[in-house]
Amino acid sequence: MTAPLDSALPSAPGRSALGLGALRVRGDLVGLVPACLLVALALRVWAAIWDQGLVWPDEIFQTLEQAHRVVFGWGAIPWEFRDGARSWVYPGLIAAVWKVAVAVGVKRALVLICIAKLSMGLLSFGGVWAGTRLARSLGGDRAAFLAALFGAICPPIVVFGSRCTTETASAALVMFSVVLLEVTPLRRRAGWAGALMALAVLFRYQTGLVAAGLFLLLLARRRWLDALAYSLCAAVVVAIGAYVDVKTWGDPFHPLIAYLKFNLAPGGADRWGTSPFTFFSDHLGTSIGLSYSILLVGFLTSARRARGLVLVVLFFVLVHCAIGHKELRFITPILPLSVALAAVGLADLMNGLRQGARPTYILALVCGGQMAWSLRAPTLGDLGYGGDEEVVWHADEDYYRLTLEMGEKPDLCGALTVGTARAWTGGYTYLHREVPIFFDKEPRNFAASNYAIGAPDEKLPAGWRVLHARGKYALWRRDGTCSAVPADWSLNML
Description:
Elements: H1 20-50, H2 58-72, H3 79-83, H4 89-103, H5 109-153, H6 155-161, H7 166-182, H8 187-203, H9 208-220, H10 224-249, H11 254-264, H12 279-288, H13 291-301, H14 303-321, H15 335-352, H16 358-376, H17 397-407, E1 415-417, H18 427-431, E2 437-438, H19 443-447, E3 451-454, E4 464-470, E5 473-478
Parallel strand pairs: 1-2, 1-3
Antiparallel strand pairs: 3-5, 4-5
């Protein structure tokens, strides 16, 4: 058997019998881990089913909307999927799940959306479980308990945990790969780790920084055969991704090349705004709360036991800090790993106090309670999405609920959105009807639609009336049929 990535380290605490008291403490901690994991699962299931709010449009238009195009044949086309700057691997996998759902009789848009979000929630839960495994391997049972607790309720991890973004899926794959390499370092598992990391890269190209870092760690530990298995299996998955590119865009690696050209061009992604170097640290602090400083201390302390993994995380974050355009979700692929490492470092510090399990329980109570309070009502501003003080949970959900309702109207022949930017609509993912969607308040658009969503006090032409309102939005309707769709109407909506 080969050595783990950071094997030349002190043995993890909590492994030897130190008397009946120590055994009792160990048993208590082990018993708390399943409870924390149950909380993690429950939160993600709740968010997937009952929260239909939106943090950022990519949750729909880069993923679900494209899967909708594959399965049903219609959907909005953002510029990335017009110019070929995204791989079809991730939306293709969602489409595969939806095809199975449709085959067994699922028809409603809300059910399909919940299935996709539940899939992400289960992946996120898997990342928490994997973080617990890693923490136990590196720091013993106290570390495992803290990792399970923090992973379960850390606000940014939970907020993004059930959202259909490539970062959410990549985060779980990163954790699985690290556990395969670190906890059970068998050669065949190194191959699986390489395959999973390659898939994470196909989902989110920036995850290649982590993939390269793990490969360098294998070389640094002189695990030559593991490095070979890791790279060969990664190459197989990359080849499959290149084949998907050929079938969808005509050329291998076409999305990667288009993506790099766009982002390296003058202006590039900066047109969506730039942020200071400290953006990620600032908004981890505002979204997590005071416990962020404690987690940061634990993360840095964990370098005693997992120096290589700490360096990989820092490398990933610092590269993103150097890029002008920043969103907190960009670093979510390494947040579960960071939290697990923080748990290892904090457990080490608690062990150094030599006061038994009491300091660990106090730390868990303080940090867990504070993070749970922050998780109750984080705002979009806390996450760095402008200065918006709207709570993340159910953000603008009334709009999407009304879109679902509009899509189920049997006489719908054209849908109109008034006063909402097209990127913030639910697209055909939520409407789920093959009818045109219009966004501009032009007379021809009013004539070509018979349902609309806008403010309850919106000034619409004669004949339009409010069916009912939800919060700041209302569902409008007019009698009569829809006129012909304007000749210049297109699904290239974004």
